[in-house]
Each structure stands twice: as C-alpha cells, then as structure tokens.
Amino acid sequence: MTDRNLADWHNRAALFEQEINKAVIGLERPVRLVTTAIFARGHAMLEGDVGVGKTTLLRAVARGIGGAYERIEGTIDLMPNDLVYHTYINEAGKPQVDPGPILKHGEELSTFFFNEVNRARPQVHSLLLRVMAEKSVTAFNREHYFPHLQVFADRNRVEKDETFEIPSAARDRFMMELKIETPEDPALQRELMFNPRFYDVDALIETIQPGILPYRELNEISRQIQHHIQASETLQNYALQLWQATRFPKNFSIALDNVDMDRLILAGASARGAGMLMRAARVTAWLNGRTHVLPEDIREIFHETIAHRVFFNPTYELRRTLLAEQLSQKILQQVAAP
Ligand SMILES: Nc1ncnc2c1ncn2[C@@H]1O[C@H](COP(=O)(O)OP(=O)(O)OP(=O)(O)O)[C@@H](O)[C@H]1O
C-alpha cells in the first residue's frame, strides 16, 4: 500500500464521517470515535438512553462500509443458540433449521449490534465474547469465520432489574466504551423534534452513499495505518506513564474527592487495553492528518479506550461512571505531556 492509497483512504474516511453526520445529528464526537474503532478494527460498547439514535448511527455505519448488518435484542430468555440458528415448522409442516443472525450472512457480516446486552444471560455473553475475540463460531459441525465482523453492543443503564452485568473479561475486549447522548443544542433538538426527515429511519439511511469504506479492505488498511503512523520514544514514554497511572494513581499524586486512593483500584488497565489505546491513538493521528502520534491524539481517546478497563473496589463500583470520568481527567492532568 502506498502513501497515495493512504491519502485516498483518508479522504474516504472524511466523506464517511460527513455522510454519517447527515443521518445522526449532534453526534460528531461519537461518530469520530466509531470511525476510529472501524479503522482500528475494534469492537465498541455504546452507552446511552433509549431513542438517542444508536440504531440509526449503526445502520448508517453499515451502509457506509457495506456488508451485512444484524441487530439482536438482549432478553432474559435469549439462549446462545438463538444467535446461531433458529428452528421452526415450515409451510409443509416439517421442522426446519435456519441459520440465525450471526451465521446467515457468512463472511459478509460486517456490523453486528447487540442491543441491551446486559439483559442477556452470561451464557450468551460468553458466546459473544468468543465471536468478538476469535471472529468465528462452531455450528453444524464446522467452523464459521467472520473476518470483517465488528461488534457494537449497548448496555441499558436505566433499568437494573433482571440484568446481568458484563463480566470484566468481556468489557476488556471492547476497544471502546462511548456515550451517545441527546444533543443539548436547542437548534438540533428542534430539528429532531420537528423535521420529518428524522422520523423515517429507512429513508434517512437511504440518503447515505453506500460502501464508502469497502468493508473487505478495512483489515488491510488498518494494518497499514498501524505500520505507517509513528510513535516517538518520548511519546511512548508518555503513553507508558498514562498506563501506569491507571494501575498506581497514588504514585502520580492523583486524588479524588471522598475516595480512599489506596483502596479504589482493584486492577488497572490490562496490557491488551494499553495496546488498544495505542491502536486507537495511531488511527486518531491518521484521521487528524498526521504521520506521528502526538499526546493530543492519545488524550482524545484516552477515556473511551481506558476507563472501562479499570476495576474498582466494589464499594466504589456503584459510583463507577462518575469516578471513572474523574479518574481519567486527573490522570490526563497529572501525567505531564511531553
Ligand atoms: N441524534 C440523532 N440524530 C438523528 N436522529 C435521531 C437522533 N436521536 C434520535 N433520533 C431519531 O429518533 C428515533 C429513534 O432512534 P434510534 O432507533 O436510532 O434510537 P436508539 O438509541 O437505537 O433507541 P433504542 O435503544 O430504543 O433502540 C429515530 O427516528 C431517529 O432518527
């Protein structure tokens, strides 16, 4: 792949973001983060209330990259097999087995949206984990591969009844956790409320130019970006310090109000998490038009790639969202950028 190719992909990425921002409004930052995850080939957890545009965003993404899109609802009675196949009585009155949402598009599956993932049972989470990590499942006596698959999940954060928290290991496999919120700008709120364009999602998605980022080429372009975008030794030292600060915040004089810093952290970010931080930072540098990562590229994606990997003592877990935000902020404040 040549520099010209990368430059061409850079233009395509800009067009892609522009098109997605036509379908969902006021979500420029989440759209940038999702674009980053796409080029870093990472899965993402979306956090947001109902009806804030998550499905619209992901359908727009699927149209922008091409390939097949599937969405599944997490429910308490969902079984792992429901993802793989479904059985029913066909018109001839005979039992029939059809491939389920994961299998039915084969290698064309590019975007899989697991809505309300915390309503599904742990057995379902473990299947999802395997699909995310290995991009394959075993079914009908053979292995099925999904080399272009990217998983997006959404966690219902309003209702906690009958929910199953995603285990730490599963959360670590998500490259990012990002917030999707209703825009605060009154002009955008007026648009969403009164412009009929936003009432019909199917028509809205149709307006997006299809296949701007051909999904079959994303793995290769992602590899090229990781090789092409440099991280100097000084930058590496900075990134290492940030990682250490998630493990031993006290060593960096990080203190949060009303928190015993000796007890806050059960485990800091994993090595996988630290690697994902740099993968995302390289893509951010590339999207920002650079050939070298700068501290600001890391800072741009630090919270979304790292906060969900830091495990708090159970006494602090209840206040996780707030504490995680404060911790990220303090780390970025206290670790001196070169
Ligand atoms: N920021 C936004 N930009 C464009 N449309 C939006 C936005 N927020 C909400 N909508 C509109 O609100 C409706 C619901 O959006 P959508 O189905 O994408 O939400 P959701 O977050 O996936 O909700 P749920 O979790 O209930 O499925 C759609 O008609 C969508 O066009």
From TrEMBL:
GO molecular function per UniProt: ATP binding; ATP hydrolysis activity
Signal peptide: none
SMART domains (UniProt xref): AAA
Residue ranges occupied by any AAA+ ATPase domain in the UniProt entry: 40-184
InterPro entries: AAA+_ATPase (IPR003593), ATPase_AAA-3 (IPR011703), CbbQ/NirQ/NorQ/GpvN (IPR050764), ChlI/MoxR_AAA_lid (IPR041628), ClpA/B (IPR001270), P-loop_NTPase (IPR027417)
Pfam families for this protein: AAA_3 (PF07726), AAA_lid_2 (PF17863)
Superkingdom, natural source: Bacteria
Name this protein carries in UniProt: MoxR family ATPase
Native source species: Methylotuvimicrobium buryatense
